[in-house]
Amino acid sequence: MSQGEAAGHGTAKPQDQGWAWMVLLAAVLLQGLTLGFPCCIGVFFTDLQHEFQASNSQTSWFPSIMVAVLHGGGPLCSILVKRFGCRFVVMLGGLLSGLGMVSSSFCRSISQLYLTAGLITGLGSCFSFQAGVTVLGYYFVRWRTLANAVASTGVSLGFTLWPLLSQYLLDEMGWRNTFLIFGGILLNCCVCGAIMRPIQLASGSLPQSAKPEEEPGSRAEEAQLSNGASPHHSILQQHTRRTKCFQVLQKYLAFDIFCQNKGYQIYTIGVTWMMMGFALPHVYLVPYAIHNGVEERKAALLISIIGFINIFIRPLTGLLSGHRVFTGRRIYLFSLAVLLCGLSNFICVISAEFSVLILYCVILSIAMSGVGALTFQVLMDVVEMDRFSSALGLFTILESITLLIGPPLTGLLVDITSDFHYVFYNSSFFLLSAALFMGLSFCALEKKNKLREASKAHLDNPSRYQYSEMSTEPKAENQSPPAVEYITSV
């Protein structure tokens, strides 16, 4: 059943109330199961190295592939969401995630883990997570910022519980049986998907709205192609294929938005660059602590501390950023949070004592709360909601590239130098440079738009003074620029 059919069969539900809060609860659990899961991989890092006799770089490919596919499967997820609806995609993701982890428990080489836990589980997590984020945008309008912030607390719960559970199961039954149990746990994504009932949008479903634009052109081309005597038959076929290919790219990867919307362009480039360093502490913090003499249970506790603090800070960040004072300015809060993430990494360079690492985790978790609560809200600010799924697809596939290569390259550097400090040096470099780029670029874009408005107002002044008795026309003119500013996050 397509998304349009699902919407048609679903009953119209008021947004921001009723069943929407059940969907939000399911989204919280979904993000804990999907985004929170990769954080526990560091607990198994040393055991996997010894089991498969792998280097830091080889072992780090496993979580890198998982996280990269989790983010980079956006376009495929977008296609499935538009065709089958969010409920089906979330449940499909749960099945793939469970299958991937069960298969991982039987792996005999690190390369097999790349396929099972990395590719299959990562793709399943991508489907469940991104479809869950998309459905929130339709169920919430007025409370969308708060809903995204509350949903992101699921990541915090995952960060808190996954490492503790992982360390306990690892000590009791080894990593293979632990992965088998994880497969069963991830199947709960199917339950979350069942809760996400189809919702009928007031403006109609997106796939149905696209059909009137496509049908006239396609019918004309079919009429021409039906004339077999035409000498341009093959040329028209090639043109049709190119047109359809371009339509697919524009529909699911939002290249048109990337080229035309400066706010989306800056934000996507900045986050893509940021991801080169953002995941490094999550992968290497536990191995770094163990390497410096911290007990394994205490090392696993560090990740849980980050998640526990996030539980309380993320909703507060969502409430703060949802205030009207920050409307159109949430990108600056996001940049500030990224900047704090980068600065916090220097604490690990100073000392690797457990007390110092706790201080690092506290500061990092506060900064991460801002990043996690605002990432998708800022994206919803810079693009229109009816193109959010497509914009999310391009956004995630670009950042997945840097998520994929960041940890292995850093692991190679650690293998060469035998110095874990380079993990935090690299992370700080990418985070600080990304924060400055996004903050300064949006500031320059805001100034440019203000100058453009000022010049436009100066040109419009004579007509306004001449027809000052027509008070309704200036009001109508004054209402259109803010809509444009909202789309470009200015």
From TrEMBL:
Residue ranges, compositional bias (Basic and acidic residues): 211-222
This protein's GO CC annotations: basolateral plasma membrane
Residue ranges constituting the Major facilitator superfamily (MFS) profile domain according to the UniProt record: 20-451
Record InterPro entries: MFS, MFS_dom, MFS_trans_sf, Proton-linked_MCT
Topology within the bilayer: Multi-pass membrane protein
Keyword field contains Translocase: no
Gene3D superfamilies registered for this protein in UniProt: MFS general substrate transporter like domains
Renumbered residue ranges of the record's region Disordered: 206-231, 464-490
GO terms assigned for molecular function: monocarboxylic acid transmembrane transporter activity
Residue intervals passing through the bilayer: 21-45, 61-81, 88-106, 112-139, 146-165, 177-196, 266-287, 299-319, 331-351, 357-379, 391-410, 422-445
Keywords annotated in UniProt: Membrane, Transmembrane, Transmembrane helix
Compartments it resides in: Membrane
Domain of life assignment: Eukaryota
UniProt biased composition (Polar residues): 464-481
Entry-linked PANTHER family: MONOCARBOXYLATE TRANSPORTER, MONOCARBOXYLATE TRANSPORTER 6
Protein name per the record: MOT6 protein
Organism: Struthidea cinerea
Gene that encodes the chain: Slc16a5
